[in-house]
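Reminder: ligand-aware prediction takes two inputs, not one.
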Amino acid sequence: MSGRHVLALSGGVGGAKLAAGLAAVMDPSELTIAVNTGDDFEHLGLTICPDIDSVIYALAGLNDIQRGWGVKDETWQAMAMLRAMGEEDWFNLGDRDVAMHLARSWRLRAGESLSDVTARLAGELGIAHAIVPMSDGPVRTQVRTVAGWTDFQRWFVGEQCGPAVSAIRFEGVPGALPSPGLAAALGREDLAAIVICPSNPYLSVDPILAVDGIREAVAARRVPLIAVSPLVGGAAVKGPLAKLLAGMGRAVGNAAIADHYGDLLDHLLIDHADEADVSGLQARGLQVTVTKTMMREAADRTRLAQEVLALAGA
Ligand code: FO1
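Here is what comes back for the chain with FO1:
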């Protein structure tokens, strides 16, 4: 492999961990992290971009590991005050975290693009690597439950993923162009690999692939597409993936992940706990690496990143 650049596609928490691992072992010139913005929404007049925030906080070393989202050493005075004033309190904005949403929102309102705002805020927090939104246009994930179509965060946080999901759609596509950073990374002569971080295929990666031209560009690539499975031991590490699969009548296993990505996928990294999946995955022509995919410590993230890069030849 002659290329050196890696394009990583990431959702929130799990994806952000591998993205942080890649950033820890790669020069900023070698990595583009394109992030799902389907989870974004407007709340209390602020534009919240949860997956961009998760990636920025993870790379800046500011992420709260226990909670899984938001900033560490957080306090909640603003929420308490909002509650006292009878404002909506189903979505928690910490005192430190709210600064991110304030800074992003006024800059967007002043006419800056989401790409520019993201690059600026990440840079100010000391991040040298490129974190780019999948698109500068609004794309909003919605889920269909018995109650009808619901905005993603309303279901995910407001309803704690309770109601079963029968369909998912991404409002704004077609019509949302890839961000300049994502388009540039896909077009690079020195692209070595596309890496799908361990994020939810349906809720975090599909929105990225749904952006105008991205699925086609990824399908037409001349480089390997390497995914890290978001499943460990036949269960989702975090989030509603297992519930979504069950709702589709699918067993919670790597076969479902492989089926979902189909021909796009060349190589799947799975956890030791799922070793039994290897022969079935190989039988469908996939290359499979069995490793430790659970990332509890910084050392886990960098080791997994190194393994992915070795497979990419980058
Ligand atoms: N997740 C929660 O479960 N509860 C919250 O109150 C919450 C607030 C929140 C605020 C800012 C932010 O950037 C993320 C936040 N998240 C919260 C996480 C987020 O809803 C999800 O983890 C992602 O959208 C899924 O990737």
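Residues 11-13, 39, 48, 50-51, 53, 69-70, 91-93, 97, 153, 156-157 surround FO1 (CB under 6 Å). The chain has one domain: 5-62+113-140+169-313. We will return to this case in the review session.
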